[in-house]
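Narrative of accomplishments. A recurring question from our advisory board has been how the design workflow behaves on a single, concrete structure rather than in aggregate. To address it, we present the structure tokens for one chain from the evaluation set, followed by the sequence designed for it. No filtering or post-editing was applied between the two.
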């Protein structure tokens, strides 16, 4: 993930996902949860999105055309 990457935000009550861009990636990793804070920039000129609304975000990772696919082995 890098600055400017595309993201998709699903907002309750909004039929279609809202387009967004990665605006900030925190350099700090939370050691307890291994999470990183990521900020998105969304066009909200119409004012339809409200602060504090819980949303679901999808950010596509890098794609690799020639990646190996190794099946998972069953655990016994």
């Amino acid at each position: 993930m890098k600055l400017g990457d595309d993201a998709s935000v699903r907002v309750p009550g909004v039929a279609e996902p809202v387009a967004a861009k990665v605006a900030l990636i925190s350099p700090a990793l939370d050691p307890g949860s291994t999470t990183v804070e990521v900020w998105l920039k969304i066009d909200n000129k119409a004012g339809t999105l409200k602060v504090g609304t819980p949303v679901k975000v999808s950010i596509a990772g890098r794609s690799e055309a020639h990646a190996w696919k190794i099946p998972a082995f069953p655990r016994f």
